[in-house]
Amino acid sequence: MRTAIPSPDLSWASIAVGPLTLHTYALCLLAGIAAATWLTSRRLTERGGAEGAVLDIAMWAVPLGIVGARIYHVLTHWGSYFGAGQDPLQVLYIWEGGIAVLGSLIGGAVGAWIGCRRTGVRLWSFADALAPAMLLAQAIGRLGNWFNHELYGRATTLPWGLEIPASNPSFPAGLPAGTLFHPLFLYELLWNLLGVAVIVLLERRFALRWGRAFGVYLIWYGSARVWLETLRIDPTRSTPLGLPANVWGALLAVALGVAILVVQTRRHPEPETSVYSPGRSPAELGATPTAGEHGSAGHGGTVAAAGAVGAAGPPDRPGTTDVDAGTDHAGSVDHRDER
Q1: Model's pTM, two decimal places?
Q2: Which pLDDT band, with edges at 50, 70 and 90, does 335 fall under?
Q3: Run of H or E residues at 180
Q4: Which one of 11, 12, 284, 334 has the minimum C-beta count within 10 Å?
């Protein structure tokens, strides 16, 4: 008997609640954001951060991460927006899908920098607390690809091959119905969960602070993306040396992670004594904010940003998915993009 991973019925890709349509992919993203916020807050608080500080930072990091994800997607799918017969205004139609994880890292970093400046938390301290939480969020978000019948790779005969209906508009031409495919979403999900454990264990062994834990995150995640791109059926458009844009982005993440480890180890051999910039901790400012004082503003901003994701629906526009993907209003899907 042949074994395989079945794909859920496409009716599970969205849920109708009165006049609203909730996309399962968006719900997975929101669950990932919530899990990452909780874990980062717990880790930063254990290191001396004020309760609610992470929510205040997330108020900036989450929405700018979404903007960065959209910009990256558009730049790597330029012809879908600015080619012949295309409407450039579609760049603004984020509700039609189309975002990329690598872009969210850039936009989220800008937002985190702003949030840390406002709260007084060191950016590197926040990044270290966030490192395993990012992998947890990305693992949860990958479940959305499964519901959308997307993010699968080349055909395979392995027992864990993914079943994709031949009626899927993106089913490769020339292959017989019943062909199984590499479940790239599952590969990344498992890799990310393993990465959470790896970072936590390395922290206990080497006391990774001053940005070093985040450096490990970039190396871990970037390495996986390089590997996963080799299994893609339709990678994003190629760039110099014939490599897809996502491969270059992943290689850049790995190189940046190595640079952070080397530079920060030389600059800060001393242990981290505070997650706050000098003179910016609550105690030094003469007041200890309560969770409500910090949390109300942060919570509101995070919920607002999360709501924007939910309203936008799947993060990839039909026919152009990054390592995330999208479902059009008719229910057709495309696995070719990948964040």
Answers
A1: 0.77
A2: very low
A3: strand 180-181
A4: 11
